[in-house]
């Protein structure tokens, strides 16, 4: 959930857009002062997984709760920018998850329909958002009990447990085949009726 949503919808402090934005920015400033300088690190298995996807020409996107500028800086410092085709930040959407807009934007920029995309997440709000638009969901539970994320299509303890075969198995043959064009049954029936009427007139 975005800071703006917390200010206006959870605490109900104000509905004025300018004031909502001011409070959200101030919250971020206070948090930054408390936490101090940000240090970035790559979780185990992330780099290897991205390299595997890159070798098989699988495009990747990041849908983040931080603003896109911050995400780009983090990716550059971590050396992961070359693996990421699309970045959708909190400043690109009006509402945060469980609203699925960020995932929809990511799919659109990747040129893929949601039904043919999979997302790796850590929370139930992300699972809900992804499943709302038909995406496959892999949840990484880490230190949490796996059953807390059981609504995902696949749950792994750590990312190194995930491989390309796991991803392929999430999609059925029906998901990957193009949908057949709908039959125009109404038009066929109409043509049949007209033909019958014509034959009856000729016979008379």
Q: How is the quaternary structure best described?
A: single chain
Tertiary shape:
globular
How many angstroms does the end-to-end distance come to?
A: 74 Å
- Counting H and I runs of at least 4 residues, what is the number of helices? 9
- The count of DSSP E runs of length 2 or more, i.e. the number of strands, is 5
Across the major sheet, the strand order is 3-4-5
The whole-angstrom Rg is 24 Å
Helix content: 40-55%
The percent range for strand residues is 5-15%
The biggest beta sheet reads: 3 strands, parallel
What structural class do you assign from the helix and strand content? mainly alpha
Average pLDDT number: 83
Low-confidence stretches: 186-204
Order of SSEs: HHHEHEHEHEEHHH
Q: In words, what does this structure look like?
A:
This protein is mostly helical. It contains nine helices and five strands; from the N terminus they run αααβαβαβαββααα. The protein has helices at residues 3-10, 17-35, 46-55, 68-78, 101-110, 124-132, 164-170, 173-176, 185-203; strands spanning 61-63, 86-88, 118-121, 136-140, 154-156. The strands form two sheets. It has a three-stranded parallel beta sheet with strand order 3-4-5, covered by helices on one side. A two-stranded parallel sheet has the order 1-2. Helix 1 crosses helix 2 (17-35).
């Amino acid at each position: 959930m975005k800071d703006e949503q917390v200010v206006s919808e959870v605490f109900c402090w104000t509905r004025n857009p300018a004031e909502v934005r001011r409070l959200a920015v101030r919250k971020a400033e206070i948090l930054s002062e408390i936490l101090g300088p940000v240090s970035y690190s790559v979780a185990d298995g992330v780099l290897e997984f991205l390299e595997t996807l890159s070798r098989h020409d699988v495009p990747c996107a990041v849908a983040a709760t931080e603003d896109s500028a911050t995400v780009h800086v983090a990716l550059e410092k971590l050396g992961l920018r070359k693996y990421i085709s699309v970045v959708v930040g909190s400043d690109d959407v009006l509402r945060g998850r469980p609203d699925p807009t960020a995932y929809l934007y990511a799919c659109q920029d990747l040129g893929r329909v949601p039904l043919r995309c999979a997302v790796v997440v850590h929370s139930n709000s992300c699972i809900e958002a992804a499943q709302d638009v038909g995406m496959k969901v892999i949840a990484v539970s880490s230190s949490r009990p796996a059953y807390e994320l059981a609504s995902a299509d696949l749950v792994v303890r750590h990312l190194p447990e995930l491989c390309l075969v796991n991803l392929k198995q999430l999609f059925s043959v029906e998901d990957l085949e193009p949908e057949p064009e709908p039959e125009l049954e109404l038009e066929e029936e109409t043509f049949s009726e007209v033909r019958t009427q014509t034959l009856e007139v000729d016979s008379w």
